[in-house]
Design brief:
alpha+beta; Factor Xa Inhibitor; 64 residues
Length: 64
Amino acid sequence: MPKMKTHKGAAKRFKRTGSGKVRTTKAWRGHNRHKKSPSRWRRVKGNKILEGGNEKRMNRLLGN
């Protein structure tokens, strides 16, 4: 059986941590920062760890 190919679109958006979890950037961070309130900006700060079915799906797309 051939190897699974990595889904390149997913590989650009999701990274695997050292312990094997799947990390991604939160939404609403792209542009128009001046329109967003400070509290809203704090809410979308940083990274997010995927859980459950989303993590399973990304593991399949990332080739693991």
